[in-house]
Amino acid sequence: MKSKYLAATAGALLLAVSSLANASLMTLTFDDGDSLSDWIKDRATPAGFEIINNELVMTVNGLITSGHQATQGMQLDIGKANYMSVDMWIDSSWTASGRFAGMWGVAHNADDSRANEFPILEFQNNHNGHTGVAKWESGPGWVLPPSSLYTMDAFNQLEIMLNGGTYQYFVNGNLIHTGASTSAYLGWVILNGYNSMSDEGGYQVRYDNLTFGNVAVPEPSTLAIFTLALAGLTTRRFCKK
């Protein structure tokens, strides 16, 4: 009964935000048996990329510890979106100093050419002397300090929105950064991990509830309702267990 109630609540919240914010979204819940055939390699193919216990599990491991190929991940075509989010488990076993896992966006111009903009949210441990969910803004690079608004050994919601010439970065519903943008839309989402623990046998990243599409959120009050609705969707994760 509780699971049905939670699912109904999430559905009601999504219906509410759809009418208030004109949202057109798709959520991949990574249920056992779902296909991952639409995903392609980003930089280097991760050691593992599969659905386990109704979650997407990516294994990051390898001998390369620096350079372009040290980042392993997979990417997905999301059309012409202005919003993406994912739930990512931040694990206390990520003890090495360096970069770990996150979500990247790939921006495109109005003529569909790829823009040189890659908004990123990524957990980092003692990287550049800081620990938290870091945000990358093309041009300035890593914006310090990273956000401390995360929970260890738990799923954390990472969100990136392209809205009115700016990127808005959220962690667990909290706006943590706003950066400039000249692009028209987000065409790809990448789930990536860095080889910070390759000398320790690598590590696994657990993802769930990847959401992407288009939203129109002109007012802060509407944005708050929108975030609440997406938070309601995360109850789906617990219903699946």
UniProtKB/TrEMBL annotation:
The keyword Isomerase does not apply. Residues 216-237 form the Ice-binding protein C-terminal domain. It comes from the Bacteria. This is Ice-binding protein C-terminal domain-containing protein. Pfam families: PEP-CTERM. Keywords: Signal. InterPro entries: Ice-binding_C. It comes from Thalassotalea piscium. Residues 1-23 form the signal peptide.
